[in-house]
Amino acid sequence: MGEPYKKQYAQELFDTREGMDSLRFYTNGLFVDMCEGPHVADTGELPADGFKLRSIAGAYWRGSEKNDMMTRIYAWAFKSKDELKEHRRRWQEAQARDHKKLGKELGIYTISEEIGKGLPLWMPNGTVIRDELEKYMRELEFKDGYKRVATPHIAKTDLYHKTGHLPYYKEGMYPFMHIKEGEGDEGTTTYVLKPMNCPHHHMIFGAEKRSYRDLPLRLAEYGHCYRYEDSGSLSGLLRVRGMCMNDAHIYCAAESIQEEFLAVMEMHRVLYEKLGIHDYYMRLSTWDPEDPKGREKYVDNPAAWEDTQVRVREAMKESGLPFDEVKGEAAFYGPKIDFQFKTVTGREETASTNQLDFAIPEKLNLVYTASDGTEQHPYVIHRAPAGTHERFVAFLIEHFAGAFPTWMAPVQVKIIPVGESFTAYGEQLENELRGEMVRAELDRSSETMGKKVRTAIKQKIPHMLVIGEKEMSANTVTVRRYGSEDQQTIPFPQFKDQLATTIRTRALDAARIF
Ligand SMILES: [Zn+2]
Q1: 158 vs 30: CA distance, rounded Å
Q2: How far apart are CA 511 and CA 177, in angstroms?
């Protein structure tokens, strides 16, 4: 009585019958509540300093504005004051590192209502970070024998029917474009923004006659994809509708799967180490032969499933990286390996998804001539160690708290003259550094030196060069690093050499990794 919402909820469960099993009651002495529980019998059981009311907010019952407005109370409750304190510290840290907040403050990206929801625009600073990351991935891929390709943003929908993505994947795609290219109904062609790069790369594989000598063929592209995510789920750079993926497809014979997968995992390890990411593991998603809906969910080829899973699992063991396994989460065309990260708040995120595909090459009739002269379908490894730029940069903003290592930092050096009379010396340093492709900027404002330093710190610029009379006359610079109060006066050529090494080796000199 007096609980209209609980009554309505119970009634709905009762009406549908389906949910009746989920109705729970919790009893505490004479008090019975329709609730999962548990409840304490007495508030005296709670440590008075273990909880904290945080905030309140209005929320419509069941999320509909036609319903009553309710009050939602946010609180933290822990067993002890220390646990609460630790949680609060992590929470504050997470707030400070939030990629949406820092993304705006540091000029990394913006979202314009006039362009559209979920379609981030990369600002100059964000573009530097993307470009540097992309350049690094290109180098790793080049060393591993990848070849780069470039493909358009759209394709005919027929292609996705052939691969089997349609009709199942339709909801995840932007609406189709029907374009009249000839006479009558026959003359209409349907195109769609590509939700993935694979079929485009497959067409490149199929464009030439391939022999076993050409394999493994590794085609790489930072490819743009579009997925029509629900507007309610869109969030900053983490959930978007337009994304650019560190994609590649490796076409190989069965006997190379293990070796290729191993190289892919090694590339992940090298990348993550370069960025100081240590808290990650791999998750192998396999098919579930007992799933009653298995025939709809997975390509019906039990032998291929068993064979490929063994090969992938062996490669994972050999890599020495930690992994676990979940049944029933595979892609419809083969086993999947996700790389899972823990964020600052302890939230788990999928940073990269890799799949082995034994079905689509057959559907698209991709073949190569084997050493015995027969035509065979290749296996395809889909891999994306740096995921999408959107997701990966969001993660990196939080990981580095916006203070990127020098090689990725949008502005690497800020030159701060203590007065106007040193502007010319500042310009000379700026030109010299820019001549060596260093992103150096001279602060030309008429602010005080203290204000200029504070601005550079706010922008999280890794190196500040303070210059005045002493520096100008001796061709030296007073260097201050972001995150440190120390400063050191050294000859300018020495600074330049040190900086060049830091950038060339892509040193992990970020000030704040969690
Ligand atoms: Zn793919």
Answers
A1: 65
A2: 48
- Residue 366 is which amino acid? L
Answer yes or no: is 66 within a domain: no
Question: Is residue 169 situated within a structural domain?
Answer: no
Q: What is the CATH number of the domain that holds 435?
A: 3.40.50.800
Residue 301 pLDDT level (bands cut at 50, 70, 90): confident
Tens digits of residue pLDDT in 418-476: 999 999 999 999 999 999 999 999 999 999 999 999 999 999 999 999 999 999 999 99
Q: Closest by alpha carbon to 118, among 110, 126, 106?
A: 110
CA of 288 to the centre of ligand 1 (A): 22
Position 342 scores a pLDDT of 84
- Give the mean pLDDT of the chain: 91
Task: Tell me how far the alpha carbon of residue 128 lies from the centroid of ligand 1, in angstroms.
Answer: 26
Q: Rounded CA gap, 157 and 177, in Å?
A: 9
Q: Read off the tokens for 309.
A: 């899973």
321 and 282 Cβ atoms separated by less than 8 Å: yes
CATH number at residue 392: 3.30.930.10
Same-domain status, 424 and 454: yes
Give me ligand 1 centre to Cα 87, in Å.
39
Say whether both 354 and 422 belong to one domain. no
Same domain (yes/no): 250, 372: yes
Do 426 and 490 have their domain in common? yes
Question: What gap in Å lies between CA 118 and CA 261, rounded to an integer?
Answer: 32
Burial label, 234 (beta-carbon count in 10 A; 0-12, 13-18, 19+): middle
Residues 298, 425 within the same domain: no
Q: Using the 3D structure, point to which of 397, 426, 441 is the last residue of a domain.
A: 397
> What is the rounded CA–CA span in Å between residue 61 and residue 319?
50
| Ligand 1 centroid – CA 237 distance (Å) | 21
Q: Distance (Å, rounded) from C-alpha 173 to C-alpha 157?
A: 10
User: Are residues 157 and 165 in contact, defined by beta-carbon separation less than 8 angstroms?
Assistant: no
d(CA 372, ligand 1 centre) in Å: 29
pTM as predicted: 0.86
The boundaries of the domain holding residue 475 are: 413-504
Total domain count for the chain? 2
Q: Which residues surround ligand 1, an ion (CB under 5 A)?
A: 198, 382
